[in-house]
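Sanity check

After download, print the first record. It should look like this:
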Amino acid sequence: MALLDRLRVAGQLNRSRLAPVYDMEIHGDDTRRPGRLGFSAYGACVSELATIVESRELQRVLQLGCSMQAQLESVDDGVSSIHFHDDHVEIVLDGSQARSVKASVLVGADGANSLVRTHVGITGKHRDYAQCGVVAEFEAERPHGDIAYQWFLGSSILALLPLPAHEGASTPSHRMSMVWSTAQAHATQLCAMEPERVAAEVERACGARLGALRAASPALAFDLHYFIADTLVQPRLALVGDAAHVMHPLAGQGMNAGLADVATLLDTIADRETFRDLGDMRLLRRYARARAADLALLMRTTDGLQRLFAFDDPFVRAVRNVGLNLVNRLPVFKNGLIRQAIGRSHSPRKLT
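Expected structure tokens:
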């Protein structure tokens, strides 16, 4: 949200399409002594823990922002080839009219299967989780109260996130978005079910925490894996977002990490010496160094939690649930975790 404000598009978001998250509930998987961890914006003295923004609404305001910049040109043609030179980079397009674009620096922001990353030969550390993230929307019997929920269910992780009420609704929202990180076979089963059966399966898995669930969309799945590029930069090239790193969705930090990349790159460019070329490796290395510690911590944390909760052993299960309960009894530590997570966001800085 800080970056959207910095880009001067936050005010264009339709506030009825946003859902603040004021509390989070995390539940463990020990049936005898289940762990529970709760986070509160009020307890941490922050306005909110997070904001749920619908993807299409986010895309709309970003496209609007781009359309209002006279110096930006949007090109839908595919990329035929990329050529790096001492003083510029050239992108050859493969549209109906052969042409090329020249720039001082190229930012690879083209997703997990990045053409840019592949073209320049940047490799990285990869691990397949053998899981899928299954997504769907539901209407809950009880209002969600702006609370996000997560259940560790042995080898799978179920999250229900609050969505805003339907436009014009006068009652609290009952809409929830699901992300269920589960084994590929189970994901295939869920996607093959009728939506009503999926709703019943989710309702059973979360112990009917919000009452009966009614399906509002079919279930869709995407593969989950871990990836971190060996380097974020090369001469006249910087990688951001999923082109640079892909993490497990259990912490809901994938998009935030990508937006933090963008904000850091903006800071690096804005703070450069007047004589410094945008594609200078000394400048681009500053961006890579600025992101290194945060990305390392985030990647290790999400991957470590996934490994910890995927380990199906009674003793390990008991220990991790005790750990959740222990952290829950330490409000100072909990609030420190919240402030650290929120502190990763960049303060709004005006672009010049």
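If your output differs, re-run the checksum step. Summary of this record's structure: DSSP finds ten helices and 17 strands in the chain.
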